[in-house]
Amino acid sequence: MGMFDVAVIGTGVIGTTIARELSKYNLSVVMLEKENDVSCGTTKANSAIIHAGFDAPASSNKGKYNAAGNPMFDVLCQELDVPFKRIGSLVMAFSEEEVDTLNELRLNGDALGVPGLRIVDQAELRRMEPNVSDDALAALYAPSAGIIEPWELAMAAAENAVENGAEIQFNFEVSQMVRQADGSFVIESADGESIHAKTVVNAAGVYADQVYRLVNPEAEFSIHPRRGQYYLLDKTAKSLVNHVLFPCPTKMGKGILVVPTVDGNILIGPDSEDLSVADKEEIHTTGERMSLIKKEAGKLCKNIPYRETITTFAGLRAEPTGGDFIIGESTVSGFFNVAGMKSPGLSSAPAIAKDIAQMVCTKLGSPALRADFNPVRRPRVKLEHLSDVEKQALIEEDPRYGRIICRCEMITEGEIVDAIHRQIGGRTLNGIKRRIRPGAGRCQGGFCGPRVMEILSRELGLDLLEVVQEGKDSHILINETKSSRG
């Protein structure tokens, strides 16, 4: 059993950006993930917004890290070849009292250094967003807000970390952790595997409290899951809104929003439903809550075409004791918590990663930066974005880029094969969907799903019965019903 300098537990956007930041140093880093792919938790099911950073108190970790993290996304996404658009956000007021709240948010944002904040009146709001509710009186405009694919950011960060020497182990569910006499940690999985590390970064999402209790049974915090449900509308609805639309925030969060996605869909949600500590896998949707979302979203925006819904889904946020991010070295020396990563966790991720990496490096004696660190992830081919001349040249070089597998998203066999064989390639149907979007369109994989399964089977040398949807036991095909000849 070799010794790693750092073990990062969890490969959501927090864990993977931390691992990438650590890979800049002369350190040995391993990422541990209980699922069989990156970004299988909160990162794959959230609002996909890079918040401007004006709403969390300036004195809080959320305020500090959101304001610092937002401006880092331009360079980060360029290096990692991740789609990112600064489309701006509008927090809308429907009463004079809420207009007062907008002014409070603006002042807080000014204190945090959030750029370009201003109050727009009813007339300007309608010019910016023709479909907003007639009842809206004013809005706080934040031009620095953006939209992104969180799961692709996590995958890209993990891939770049591995390209720079980090390692990753999937299906490693941490079940036991023992601190050694020298201060290092032996981390054991539920399957009996073990990892030895000098330091540990706990980025385990809704399970961060349970992981911490393995080394400190008297953990200072606990986490309960807060479920949010969503509608996803087809790209035919993309002209509905141009910015991220928010209501005034409440103690339960930023509220039900209407937002374009970076891929051209419309996302509506989430609601906010506190679950018990034991319900950390409850990601089903309910009719009652979906009806509530329709009602609340209708207060923001007119003419929402729910007939264009292509799927609904739910995600869990990690709601911590105290309500703020928990970041830093714990009472157990060498064990660092990055917990309670609810909104704006995604927006804060790059800034958190920098600080945690510095803390870990200080603990490990300030290792030097690597001279050979490469921040650039190998770009992936996006055939849909190429010119006709570029497409023709690529197809002549590799005919697989001329075979369309997903007609909704115009994804080719060549793109799927590349997604399988990258540093951390897709191994499941949903893993390929998250990486390059076959199955993310109107038919939700009804046509392309079987073809993607065949490609996975061929490229990975798997029997079709071994290809899974998501988790290692989520089999799609159970057995053969008949054979064909000739």
Please write out the topology.
Layout: E1 3-9, H1 13-22, E2 29-32, E3 49-50, H2 61-69, H3 73-80, E4 84-85, E5 89-93, H4 96-112, E6 118-121, H5 122-128, E7 138-142, E8 146-148, H6 150-163, E9 167-169, E10 174-179, E11 185-189, E12 194-202, H7 208-213, E13 223-233, E14 244-247, E15 257-260, E16 266-269, E17 273-274, H8 287-300, E18 309-320, E19 326-329, E20 335-339, H9 345-363, H10 388-397, E21 404-406, E22 411-412, H11 413-421, H12 429-436, H13 449-460
Helix pairs in contact: 1-6, 1-9, 2-9, 11-13
Explained architecture:
With 486 residues, this protein is an alpha+beta fold. The chain has 13 helices and 22 strands. The protein has helices at 13-22, 61-69, 73-80, 96-112, 122-128, 150-163, 208-213, 287-300, 345-363, 388-397, 413-421, 429-436, 449-460; strands spanning 3-9, 29-32, 49-50, 84-85, 89-93, 118-121, 138-142, 146-148, 167-169, 174-179, 185-189, 194-202, 223-233, 244-247, 257-260, 266-269, 273-274, 309-320, 326-329, 335-339, 404-406, 411-412. The N and C termini lie far apart (52 Å). The mean pLDDT is 95.
Largest sheet: 8 strands, mixed
- Percent range of helical residues: 25-40%
Q: Give the overall form.
A: globular
Q: Quick one: how many beta strands?
A: 22
Strand content: 15-25%
Question: What structural class do helix, strand and pairing data support?
Answer: alpha+beta
pLDDT < 50 runs, ≥5 residues:
none
Q: Using only CA atoms, what is the Rg? A: 23 Å
